[in-house]
Design brief:
The structure holds 2 protein chains of 2 kinds. By secondary structure, chain A is mostly helical. Helices cover about 70% and strands about 0% of the residues of chain A. In chain B, strand 9, helix 6 and strand 10 form a beta-alpha-beta unit. At the A-B interface, helix 9 and helix 10 of A face helix 2, strand 6 and helix 3 of B.
Chain lengths: ~350, ~260
């Protein structure tokens, strides 16, 4: 739980390797606790002892009702929350590294919007002009569409906002606003075309929720998140070097253009697939990496795996709150992450620790 | 030996570098001087492999630069860039460690610590880079370059240090220290190329001077041949300046190496 005693100061010799490993262990423990909370909390509470019995293969202790709730509702929801949280936080951390800017976040700069637009297009046009593709891809149609939507926006943003390998915060945010506005306009067009059933689906996307968790959705997002997690060790060193600039990264032996392409695709994959299954959930991608930089330093060797663990934990806790705080009604999870995330974001912007506005290019 | 032949770089119709030949020999401290916009940084970018020339070739020890992979190149040459700003609070050690990792060090943290000591930054290891002064940041970058090529020669092949205005934001003492470290690197068989603006420092440290003007080599040779009234007048537009003392009542400090 060292992650909670913020901010940690670097070790006396300036090497935060041990510190990074320690925080990773703390985050793993936090994630286990978050999983237990997510499985146990709800209208029908499942006690810790019962949970333990169930997870160790001793399911007889539970009533049939408890078992059904666990298997049909809580387990898929927890698994989905884990994947979505990890995907959101890692895509945020990677994007901040790519843009060399701690304020880059898929939600703020319009990548989530692009993925959402593509997802809505998939819903509205899936029975129309896109029907052949929809039939061909089946379950993967929605996440793949969202992936390409996110990819187009990330690429456009990078091409427009980056000059000579540097991305200014102003250019980044302004481009994000412009791309977001264009996306919103196109979204409006699609909404006019949509029928009532499609409108309900679209509303779901704009709010963001883990409510629709099914094993099918888990299967459809799993390959995307798995690929993104697997490439972490291969891009971490390159992203560190990239912080010093394109030229310096090249001088240190990093194939810069290839690295950037891989990272852009990874950001779109993580962001697009999470949007496809859970809608747009904001602030996870910016808050988790920020808090972790305070705890373990900015090196991507620890920041990226830490974001995966911390993002999963944060989203599960937020979802548990969303389910219980106004029971029997359920709050959209995006409301919870924004209520928690927006003030933290502001604090980070204005605070003395971490990267404040003054330090930005 | 790093050899560049007939290098030409053209951008928006202007020749940044025009038909330049340059040889960087092991054991030799080569310094490029010239006014702003002479093409010094561009030439260094070509030599370090960062920029492909429009015409001409660069070879490292007989091998064409185009055939070298970035990771192999990183093991035999390091580059000190001009001022670098960071938006993330890496410590001085973590920055330096990146160089050691690029070198393929078994214990990169230890190698980084040694490099920081060589750059006179012992005790700065845990300081966040953005909180350092401009000169301190420059020395951290110098330490990173040293961590990337810690030895002047490895397996009989000389390594190279490229320094783009290494003294730009340093005080007099540290200017001398950095250039002495670079000269030691060259004396031990390494290749060093530096861009300098201070002609006195250039004359003090260079084994070989290259004077660049409007993208062309105006003069190339030992200091006494390169820094003459003729050359300085032609390149900088200041006549009769070489060896002229200031007025009697004006104190002046000429930067000079400590060990000589």
């Amino acid at each position: 739980m060292r992650a909670l005693s913020l901010p940690l100061r670097p070790a006396a010799d300036g090497d935060r390797t041990q510190q990074g490993v320690l925080v990773l262990f703390g985050l793993a423990a936090l994630l286990v606790i978050a999983c237990l909370i997510s499985l146990g909390v709800g209208p029908t509470g499942v006690g810790l002892a019962d949970l333990w019995a169930y997870l160790t293969g001793n399911a007889d202790r539970l009533t049939t009702q408890e078992r059904v709730i666990l298997e049909a509702v809580r387990l898929p929801r927890t698994a989905l929350g884990l994947l979505v949280g990890a995907g959101l936080a890692v895509s945020g951390a990677m994007m901040q590294g790519l843009f060399r800017n701690p304020l880059a976040d898929p939600g703020i700069v319009g990548v989530t919007a692009g993925a959402g637009l593509a997802a809505v297009a998939a819903i509205v046009l899936g029975n129309g002009i896109l029907a052949p593709i929809a039939l061909l891809l089946g379950n993967q149609f929605l996440p793949l569409m969202a992936f390409f939507g996110g990819l187009i926006n990330t690429w456009a943003l990078y091409l427009i906002a980056t000059r000579d390998g540097r991305t200014s915060t102003t250019a980044l945010i302004l481009c994000g606003i412009a791309i977001g506005a264009l996306t919103a306009a196109l979204m409006g067009l699609l909404i006019v075309m949509a029928d009532d059933r499609q409108l309900r689906d679209i509303t779901f996307w704009s709010l963001g929720s883990l409510g629709g968790a099914t094993y099918g959705r888990i299967v459809s997002i799993l390959p995307f998140i798995a690929v993104v997690l697997v490439i972490i060790p291969f891009v971490a060193r390159g992203l560190d070097a990239l912080i010093l600039g394109d030229a310096a990264a090249f001088h240190m032996g990093i194939p810069v253009q290839r690295l950037k392409k891989i990272v852009i695709i990874a950001v779109a994959a993580a962001c697009g697939s999470t949007v496809a299954v859970a809608g747009s959930i904001g602030f996870v991608g910016i808050v988790v990496p920020h808090l972790l930089r305070l705890a373990m330093g900015p090196s991507h060797r620890f920041l990226l795996p830490g974001s995966a663990l911390g993002g999963g934990a944060l989203l599960l806790i937020a979802d548990s709150v969303a389910r219980t705080v106004a029971a029997p009604a359920e709050l959209p999870i995006g409301v919870i992450t924004a209520l928690f995330g927006a003030p933290v974001f502001l604090f980070l912007l204005l605070g003395k620790n971490g990267a404040s506005m003054r330090d930005l290019p | 030996m790093i050899i560049a032949e007939n290098i030409t770089i053209t951008r928006s119709g202007r020749n940044l570098v025009k038909s330049v030949d340059i040889e960087l020999r092991p054991g030799c401290f080569t310094v490029v001087i010239g006014p702003n916009g002479a093409g010094k940084s561009t030439l260094m970018k070509v030599l370090s492999g960062e920029m492909r020339p429009d015409e001409g070739t660069v070879s490292y020890h007989g091998k064409n630069l185009d055939l070298c992979r970035p990771e192999d190149l990183a093991k035999c040459r390091a580059v000190l860039p001009q001022a670098t700003q960071l938006a993330f609070p890496f410590t001085a050690l973590e920055i330096t460690r990146m160089g050691a990792v690029a070198h393929g060090a078994l214990d990169p943290s230890d190698q980084a610590r040694k490099a920081l000591k060589r750059a006179g930054l012992h005790g700065f290891e845990r300081r966040p880079y953005p909180s350092l002064s401009g000169g301190e940041q420059q020395r951290v970058q110098f330490a990173r370059a040293l961590a990337q090529v810690p030895k002047p020669v490895s397996d009989g092949v000389p390594n190279a240090l490229f320094l783009d205005e290494p003294t730009a934001s340093l005080d007099l003492g540290h200017q001398i220290s950095v250039l002495e470290t670079a000269r030691d690197f060259a004396s031990a068989g390494g290749i060093v190329l530096a861009i300098l603006h201070d002609l006195n420092l250039a004359a003090e440290f260079a084994d070989h001077l290259v004077v660049l003007h409007n993208g062309k080599v105006v003069k190339s040779g030992v200091c006494a041949d390169a820094i003459t009234d003729d050359v300085i007048a032609k390149v900088y537009g200041i006549g009769g300046a070489v060896g002229r003392l200031p007025a009697v009542h004006m104190p002046y400090v000429l930067p000079q190496s400590r060990h000589r």
